[in-house]
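Q: What does the assembly look like in three dimensions?
Context provided by user:
Components: two
Sequences:
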Amino acid sequence: MSFFKVSYQSKKSKARLGTITTNHGKVATPAYIAVGTKATVKGLSPKELKDLGVKIFFVNTYHVFLQPGDSLIKKLGGLHAFCGWKGPLITDSGGFQVFSLGKEKYTSKDNSAQSFREGGKLTKISNQGVLFRSYWDGKEHFFSPEKSISIQHNLGADLIVAFDDCTPYPVTRAKAEISLARTHRWAQELLLAHQRLSRRARYPQYLYGVVQGSYFKDLREKSAEFISSLPFDGIAIGGVSVGEPKKKMRQAVSWVMPYLPDDKPRHLLGVGEPDDIFDFVEMGIDTMDCVLPTRFGRMGKAIVKGKGWFIDLLKAKYQKDASPIDPECGCEACQNFSKAYLHHLFKTHELLGYRLATLHNMYYIMDLMAKIREAIRNEGLKELRKEYGF
Amino acid sequence: MSFFKVSYQSKKSKARLGTITTNHGKVATPAYIAVGTKATVKGLSPKELKDLGVKIFFVNTYHVFLQPGDSLIKKLGGLHAFCGWKGPLITDSGGFQVFSLGKEKYTSKDNSAQSFREGGKLTKISNQGVLFRSYWDGKEHFFSPEKSISIQHNLGADLIVAFDDCTPYPVTRAKAEISLARTHRWAQELLLAHQRLSRRARYPQYLYGVVQGSYFKDLREKSAEFISSLPFDGIAIGGVSVGEPKKKMRQAVSWVMPYLPDDKPRHLLGVGEPDDIFDFVEMGIDTMDCVLPTRFGRMGKAIVKGKGWFIDLLKAKYQKDASPIDPECGCEACQNFSKAYLHHLFKTHELLGYRLATLHNMYYIMDLMAKIREAIRNEGLKELRKEYGF
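A: Here is the predicted structure of the complete assembly.
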């Protein structure tokens, strides 16, 4: 069985249907990857995820490296055994968190040394890797491309991601060039580490290279071409959803797409609002991941059809509203509870509220993805977009 | 169908089997009543409760009166419709919360006026009722026996409870006498209000009288006799689990039991640690309620067999423990997750942790109650006690 197979290419757009096959199960694409930062999708149990049609979720290497640690997880049988999830899993490289959680603490404007960026207190970057201080306990750690791959091998997710230098937005051309060179250099280093570690693996872990290049067309193209030329199993697009306008994000992805090989799955990192889903599926993205359904769920924001695409359950107008979030929705929350009850649960900070809204949001997204796959097959994606108001 | 029927009286103890029949379903007794303070059993969904074998839960009138309000709940179809629970429900009178949430703020030692106790800032009590300030929004409210019954009719639970004057522990003989007289006076007043309101009810609400009398034998006896003489559907024992030693609690209940009619169900208010369950079932208690499974669940305390009867999942020794809470337990938590994973969830404050520990605790208690009912039938309660380490 090959890792990835395209089963249908739409004639009306770049959208396509495919299957990712791993040792822990299959994922029909286009797919939305739920986020389970600390080895749990916030608010939902593995059984619920399965019932909701979630096939795969994302665990953040940075967070589980710090707590409880990759060595402990390995000792306990790997991520799947640790978190009680029998399906496919993906881990990221830790790079995005190392950079983004360090970024806020950047204090100095000293750009003199090429080997250190911003003189940040939490993060110091060199060609060898990144020195950072744990948000969890203040201890210092060093992530190199090899170290990230080695941690991801300890964790044992089915899909793993290359350690890259993720530039902030906006960034100067000069810095973007230095950063990209580093990402490309690291890509080669970590591929060697991955090949070496894979010899001992009990099952294949499929490695995604990451395309960077910030918002410079030629850098994005160069990166897409270079990363595609390396023996990665899949291609991820990084450095998006970092504070740039949505239009720019679409532009950056459009620059990259023509250079990506058709036979490798394409993942868009950290993106997934309803309008994004439609746009990027049409551009040929196979998978994307986003905290949206869970984070919005915990905030009392329920995703609904239409341009505004969510309602805030905490608003006073829902206090007496006997109707569910969406009378046509088949989720547990909409089948059993009124907006008035959900409003009450959020107002009183009851655990059930976070969970029901998360459950609804995840149901909505999974249902939407199933409809999108069906629409691609029937060449009716445009009509589905319209139905959803995008 | 009669409201309550005793189907078996043990020959070895006062323990008995029975059935409470309501418009929303039956409850086999002895039963443990889960607590859902604000119209949700913290951390669990109605579907989960049902799957766990929970037949009935307790909603606190005081809390839902303040938020979202009994009028709104009535407008939305009553408590059952509001919280999506199709089974039986019980509400308390609000009295215990009015007194206990007010107690902490008692500042003055002035006992001169009989009509006001302790000069508390949050609570002022008279023969007419209790004036109190909402912990929720600071507004002033007045609860009288009639008001409490009228709120409980708005809420529409299947079982409701008389508004009583719940004495703190310890209390002087003089105060206990005044308080008891008030409880008895109120019992008569609220029975009339209940009878009047019941004429308009869509289904019967069964009213429990409350025995008080603090820790004075003759007052307890007098109260048991008096409350039993009134046309209540059931008898609740109040004023226990208010800070007194466990031995005293058992003594107070033992004073009361001989005076209670055999044909009415007996509820013990706010009690339910594993050793309590055995002791009070043997004394002839039919139902009891306690926040233990849910509160302990949120604290990371998992109930286990044996004298210590719980483990603290946050302890360092569970960090690397690959075994479940109880390898013999059939709950979702024990069937799927290690103590190491639960430890990680609690350490990182993940929602799933609170839920899994609560789920385990509720499973434990429901399983124990089923075993207790079986043991009563087989006259093997003593053996079961031994097996559980009590």
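Follow-up: The CA atoms of residues 153 and 305 of chain B lie 40 Å apart.
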